[in-house]
Design a protein that fits this description.
By secondary structure, the chain is an alpha+beta fold. It has 3 helices and 3 strands; from the N terminus they run βααββα. The termini are far apart.
């Protein structure tokens, strides 16, 4: 089972800033390293969209996933 969060905005710079902040909260986490949590942002191909995938079945720490989803929502709301 996969949870997908799509973040979209007409302003490319805001999407880039959001993707960078999300990356910084995930960096170093083993599930992020193992691609159980994936941040997909291609500023050349889809500059107005960032996508975050969480694999419930593959993540090592489901509590961490809960926390990271909340952090992503907080970053999005505060941007």
């Amino acid at each position: 089972m996969i949870l997908t969060i799509i973040l979209e905005d007409a302003k490319t710079q805001e999407v880039f800033e959001l993707a960078e902040k999300i990356h910084n909260t995930l960096a170093g986490n083993q599930d992020y390293v193992d691609s159980n949590i994936v941040l997909n942002f291609d500023n050349a191909k889809e500059p107005q969209e960032a996508t975050v995938f969480f694999s419930k079945d593959d993540c090592q720490n489901n509590e961490l996933v809960r926390g990271k989803v909340k952090e992503i929502v907080d970053i999005f709301v505060d941007l």
